[in-house]
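Late entry, evening session. Most of the bench is empty. Finally got around to the prediction I had been postponing all week. Sequence below, unchanged from the version circulated by S.P.
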Amino acid sequence: MKKIIAFLSVMTASGTAYALSVDTETPKTITADKIEYNVKTDTIKTSGNTEIVNKSGQRMTLTDSYLSKNGDNITGSDIKLWLGNHVYVESDDVVRDGIITTAYNAEFTACDGCDAYGNAWEISSRKIIHNMDDHMLQFFNPVFHAYEIPVFWLPYFEMPDPSVKYKTGFLMPDFSSTNNMGTQINIPLYINISDTHDLTFTTSVLTQENPLFQFEHRLNMEHSQYRTNAAFTHNKAGENRWYIFNNDLIELGEYARAQIYIARASDKTFLQKYGFYDNQPYLDSGASVELFGQSGYVVADAHIFQELRSSNRYHATPSGNILPNVRATYQTAPIYKETYLTFDADVLGISGDGTASQRLIGDARIVSPWTLWGGNRITASLSARYDVYNFHNTEMIDAAEFSGLKDRFLPSGYVEWGLPLFNPSTKWTQIIEPRARLTIMRETDENQFALNNDSAGTFLSDTTLFSYNRFSGLDLWENGTYADYGVRYAAFNKSGKMFEIFVGQTYDFSHNLTTDTNTGFHDGASDYVGRIEYDNVKWFDISSRFRLGRDDLSLQHIETSAIIGTSKNYLNLRHLWSQQFIDTYRNNAAANDIHELSAGVGLQITERWAVRFNAVYNITDNRFQRHTGGIFYTHPCYYLSLQYRHDNAIKNDYVGTTTFQFKFGMSIDGQRY
């Protein structure tokens, strides 16, 4: 039996509130200056300021109300139906009938208390209907106001209330303009399938080109996720131009996962021309399977490439697909003290343009680190590597094509010494660590078989020293005996501030056939390399890598990056300069130096207004490669931005363009629409 707590007439003093529980199976709370309950009609009458909260948490404030027994029918004056912390519908005439609440001559806003100047935006409407079943708001003859100024009118408008996380419908359009395709209007349609499954279909109307259609699909499952982006257009030249990007990740248990990825485009310039390009040199499609455990790791993958770069008259860009590519590594537990074994295997197949090659690499290594008296650290290692190659119509280093097997064996070993010297202090802890490594390898003329390989040569830097392999791939071999040596100084304090500097060099005891003046390697002593970094944690972080000539300490290469400021006000700088002595594609003539500057600036003008700018400037050619910028306004109730992008690239049918884009959207209780 339902329990009713009834008050025939409850009188209170002005400004005092009482709570009345009306029906324990459908609980509601009524707070008012005066509450009257009529037993015969099962109705409630309130006088003065009244607040009603229903079971779902929806809140209503009003004056002089009448409620039915279960609160299904409510009338009153000065009524505000609260749909969120800052969201309400206000009307002098609100009628509720079951799940339908109708407000006449009403105003809707999501900006209550968000701005000292008043509501940033609101919608006045002849009638607003709120359906508590589907949580939708319907507006009839709505007028959109910005700071009480009418902006535009619609005959009908519909939107979900703030309790809805996902709802099918049109999203806020955005606008852009380019100097080769005119004005572009993007109209996105969001389609909700479930809480973990949705898609967005965008129609882009262009004034100087045919429409562009974009598609985004998202699906999350318990042990997998699927993402797909695509675009298509049939342009005025009669061409079908498109792209599709797909990335699926599937968990196969606690120790395995698989990934499927697709990246293809109809041609080399579609992505760039329509604004989807992110400076990628090629597109990579394929799949991979990873197996991992506490001491081992195996990955098998395949790659099919689509080249986006163009060949030039000096050399052709790499070509070929990879199938298969299998890499595995295993490390044993310590077999004596800290001594351990590692085993590596690599299987690679490359095919394309009528040629093919497969390789199998096996490598076994024993590593034995020791800490001796006085803090001296000694690490000794021995390894043996064996390669087997199978070539089919492959161009070798002597320019002749070859089909058949080739193999090679490379034993090597190294001894490394280091002595970290500490100077602890209450303010700064300092470390000086000299370090040296002697690597002994078999000297052979067969440091490379084929021209088309996975190695892009080598480049001397601080990261190259003390590494197992100074080349970027596995097809090129180290050759003979060499030594690495350097010294590192570091200081840090309890607040996290740190300073570090490293300087080092390598020395080749034998002639290296791959020595190139541009790399920094020479017969005998190389150039000097180093890095320097300082970070004060709060507003400044700078790091630089450099290379100095071995004979006169002249600067040969430097790359520097710096971050100055906070997350809102900042200056990001990156500088790259490298002296090029030889251009191997121009008969060893002097080549142009590589000289580039990148900068990013962010300025928070006020709490809500911000300006951001990014640019890449090619100092060698004395021109901007690209630059972007924009002004952004973020309000608790809405947001807008005006951005531009200028690209100076010239490739095939694409000529650098300037694009302007305007975005506007509303925020309701923290959710963007």
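Two things to note before I forget:
The longest strand covers residues 377-395.
Residues 1-27, 312-317 have pLDDT under 50 and may be disordered.
Will write this up properly tomorrow.
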